[in-house]
Amino acid sequence: MLSPALCELTTTDDLRALARASLTRCGVDIDALAGAGSSTITARTPITGEDLFDFPAADAADVERAVDAAHEAYLRWRTVPAPVRGGLIKRLGELLAEHKADVAHLIGIEVGKISAEALGEVQEMIDICDFAVGLSRQLGGRTMPSERPGHRLMETWHPMGVVGVISAFNFPAAVWSWNLAIAIVCGDTVVWKPSQLTTLTAAACSALFDRAAREVGAPENLNITVPASGADSQALIDSRKVPLISATGSERMGAEVAPRIAARFGRAILELGGNNAAIVAPSADLDLATRGIVFSAAGTAGQRCTTLRRVIVHEDIAEELISRILKAYSGLPIGDPMSESTLVGPLINAGAFADMSAALEQARAEGGTVLIGGQRREGPAGAFYAEPAVVRMPRQSDIVRAETFAPILYVMTYATLAEAIEIHNDVPQGLSSAIFTLDQREAEQFIAADGSDCGLANVNIGTSGAEIGGAFGGEKTTGGGRESGSDSWKAYMRRATNTINYSAELPLAQGVSFS
Ligand code: NAD
Q: Cβ(178) to ligand 1 under 6 A?
């Protein structure tokens, strides 16, 4: 069923012109690329649902060649001093700042993100570059006391090799930069397989990186981007020349790639689906909680891995909180993400809207009541603008336990905090979580060992919008990976433990005698 018509959208011709100009400024000649390559991926925009350009696709042989070339580049790059490697990321950060609007335009055009969020994504890239530059002078190991006289025990960290980066459509640039910036300062090289839905953004980012590399005199092929399908990316998954795969996407994708990487004893950083919840306690500041909930649940049209999908609210304040959420939802400006006043843009494609409709149907069958939303706004045939939905659920159910990548917020009630935490943790995924409370005991309980089981556990902020300084990632079917800040860099390096004997004796460890 269609509900109120959308305001006028930016036309496909205007979006195409903006994409072409942004790409050109980033160093990509889209018209020259259009005819290249034997097979193509068609770049499209969810804003109007129409095609933009044909883009040359990489096939399985291209991916294999990319792995070989990135491996050759690694053999040279690993001996470049880390602070010098940091110089390349410093220049990349400067170029991203210079082209912030260009990259943000491409993200907006290909993903349908509103400008503020698209610009935020590029800011995150600039921030991780800053972080990695600092890190390039801090890749230190520890020295431990040796049990033997005249011996020194220490650890050193070394580059690993080629890092395969597989990224999802919804963070088409930031996820690459989280991995790339850290990998490059660690002395690794990168083969990047972006989502096939975001090839233009990937082309712009890669061109900026190549320019930075040229300007600082770095070797070629430190990052090679392969716009390939999942099926054509198998050389990346299976090659022993790729010691680490950082894969971001659905639990389904993780379940396909993880066993194959494990079968060759490769390392994986898996950043998979989330099913994020917020507990709202009786003492919560309801103004703040409502704002946090609405941004986390409806922002990015529900298409963030950290999107808030479940609210578990104390029964005494449930009606009040729900009425505040519904009031905010009823005024959400839905429409063209290129317009400054829009807060909710389109879903990525027809499949996403079909998933949303099917989930709402299942929620009803499982006893839920749709309180608001779920309908499609009238607009172009290929564009899917969905009204964010709020569904009251009597209890946890199968659909509530699944991640539907669309703006659906399930609301459930609880009586005791222990019950709330039990409901909270009773899902397969473990990415992000939050509690809204002014009671310090409850806040501490939520982030304690027997509290939230997620990789991110917040107090009095929503589930989305992480900073790069912390390690990002989640547990259970979210995959257990960590990337971005803190000590996540350790996953991109190999550790060697060195025992150095500077004496003339050869004492054995544990006092073993072998004479
Ligand atoms: P998706 O799983 O459909 O695709 C993700 C990427 O994996 C794409 O590049 C795709 O081509 C590739 N891929 C899929 N199957 C593959 C295979 N067998 N071999 C190699 N590559 C394969 O996900 P999507 O629709 O692009 O993104 C949405 C999903 O990503 C959601 O589940 C969301 O929660 C998740 N996500 C997670 C994080 C995180 O950090 N945890 C961040 C962003 C998105």
A: no
pLDDT tens digits for range 372-395: 999 999 999 999 999 999 999 998
Shortest-distance Cα residue to atom 41 of ligand 1: 271
Among 118, 464, 86, residue whose Cα is nearest residue 292: 464
Residue intervals of the chain classified under CATH 3.40.605.10 are 60-272+479-496
Which residues form the catalytic set? 271
Q: Does the beta carbon of 56 lie inside 6 Å of ligand 1?
A: no
User: What is the CATH number assigned to the segment(s) 276-468?
Assistant: 3.40.309.10
What's the pTM? 0.97
Domain 60-272+479-496 carries which CATH code?
A: 3.40.605.10
Q: How many CA atoms lie within 13 A of 193 on its CB side?
A: 27
DSSP, collapsed to helix, strand or coil, labels residue 15 as helix
Burial 424-445 (b: 16+ CB within 10 A, else e): bbebebbbbbbbbbeeeebbeb
pLDDT band at 228 (very low <50, low <70, confident <90, very high): very high
Report yes or no: 182 and 82 within 8 Å, Cβ to Cβ.
no
CATH 3.40.309.10 domain range(s) in the chain: 276-468
The protein residue with its alpha carbon nearest to ligand 1, atom 13, reads 230
